[in-house]
Amino acid sequence: MRRDEQLQLLLKTIALLVLLWLVKAFINKTTPENLGLFANNIYTEEDAFGKVITRDSRGWVIDTRLSDGKITDDFVLVHLNNPPNTPIYVYPKDIDMYVSSDIIMKGEYEPYNVKIMIQYMKRFPNAVFLDLGAFVGSFSIAIAALEYKVVAVECLKSSVRRLYASMKEAGVSDRMSIIHNVISDKRKPVVIETEPGNMGLTYVDLRKSEGKEIVKSIVLDDLLEIFQFKEAIIKMDVHQFEDMVLNGAYKFFKKVNVEAVLMEFIHHQSDSYDNDGKFIVDFMEAHGLEPDVPEDIKQDYKKWQTAEILFKRKRPFSHTL
């Protein structure tokens, strides 16, 4: 081979190596480590506990971006009253005027509802507490601290980071898993928004296709791919998405004995979204659950007077539903 040919071959080899390096650098920069070409997949629930996981087109993977353990100045460490002295990281009061402010000042948020969920976990200690719309974890961290299994689902990155930090601080990693997704009835990217000064009002804006924070939506049935649920107690606060969650949960409710669902229902009383209130009530009825409301208004959900409604099991669970 002539000298000029050798030189050309060397230059081509160098160019190819540079190109491969640039491609690798691009992948590392634009794709999260956990969602990269060599994703760290999750296949069993044992692998999911103590981690932040997410589901995308490659399946279930560890979301290492949100579980690096980094705690910044806007992480406020306080303690819950129930259980006593349980550590939890929240937002500063000036950017979260309701949930975080209450926890900072009172050591609790919605204590009555938390108490209801704890009572159900005591009745069904082998159940998994499924927290849909976990936010900073006022329910999840409290219940995990009482030695129960918890799967917390949250879509906002900054809240997931706080959940992870709280899980570590409270020492409940062996029984808690955090999912970074939206739960809906379709699998697609969605835009996440928050209300200024009220981080607790996190919601999906279906009118937008672009935004500062985009996350994949999945269906509740997808959780059955890795979690071996037999019994579950569910808290559902997903800001007007409750009917969509149920519309993607037929398999889940057929396979899992759901003993109770505490749901934010106030947005569905007027049937503003395609008879969504009626759909929720009918879905619960079809799966053996009834609302815990006075008997005289049980059949008229537009008269239910509380923002959250507890649906409780009224007939024995059956896989043949």
From TrEMBL:
UniProt entry tagged with the keyword Cell membrane: no
Signal peptide span: 1-25
Domain Methyltransferase FkbM: 144-288
Source species, domain of life: Eukaryota
Pfam families noted in UniProt: Methyltransf_21 (PF05050)
UniProt entry keywords in alphabetical sequence: Signal
Entries under SUPFAM superfamilies matching the protein: S-adenosyl-L-methionine-dependent methyltransferases
Keyword Plastid annotated: no
InterPro entries: FkbM_mtfrase, SAM-dependent_MTase, SAM-dependent_MTases_sf
Annotated PANTHER family: METHYLTRANSFERASE, FKBM FAMILY PROTEIN (PTHR34203), SLL1173 PROTEIN (PTHR34203:SF15)
Protein name per the record: Methyltransferase FkbM domain-containing protein
